[in-house]
Amino acid sequence: MILDHEICVLNGDMNYRIDTMGRDTVANILKANNLSKLLERDQLLASKRKNPWFKLRAFCELPITFPPTYKYDVGEDRYDTSEKRRSPAWCDRILYRGRDRIEQQNYGRHDLRASDHRPVTGEFRMVIKTISPQKRAQKWEECHKQLVGMKERHGNDMM
User: Fold this and answer.
1) How far apart are CA 109 and CA 103, in angstroms?
2) Residues 40 and 68 in one domain
3) Which of 3, 6, 1 lies closest to 126, judged by CA?
């Protein structure tokens, strides 16, 4: 299971939106550069605050300091002007967890215009377990000797 891993990074379009605000309200708040007002209504952050059983609650995310990553007119810097006029949101996210073995250094959005999303990236420092070839060989030899000893004591009944 995903939560059984010691280090885990989830990233991609998680499809969380901004609750209970119309597109024009969101757009006006963005023009005023008041991201904190929008982040109060971000579905992912609200679920982490309110729901103790929310699976993603165990994950961390650096504070969002960039404009929403969705829904743009392709090739433009305008939020959706199509007939649907979808509201901007932070759909694209990076979440992580790692029992004090991972630390995110930065979190940002990039203004690539090939999609209706703007990609996000993050840089991490991680403590990764390593295996000493010498200690591994030594442990292998110890186990092999134990197995040979058991075979000698119990004969071929073991296999």
Assistant:
1) 18
2) yes
3) 6
Q: For 9-37, give the DSSP string.
A: EEEEE----BTT--HHHHHHHHHTT-HHH
Q: Does 108 share its domain with 64?
A: yes
Measured CA to CA, the distance from residue 49 to residue 116 in angstroms comes to: 28
- Does the structure show a pLDDT above 80 at 20? yes
Range of the domain at 157: 129-159
**CB contact set of 68 (below 8 Å; sequence gap of 6+):** 18, 26, 30, 38, 79, 88, 89, 90, 91
Q: Cα–Cα distance between 44 and 89 in angstroms, integer?
A: 11
The string of pLDDT tens digits covering residues 90-104 is: 999 999 999 889 999
Provide the whole-model pTM. Answer: 0.80
143 in Cβ contact with 104 (< 8 Å): no
DSSP 3-state of 107: strand
Instruction: Collapse the DSSP code of 117 into the 3-class scheme (helix H, G, I; strand E, B; otherwise coil) and give the result.
Output: strand
For the stretch 32-69, pLDDT in tens is: 999 999 999 999 999 999 999 999 999 999 999 999 99
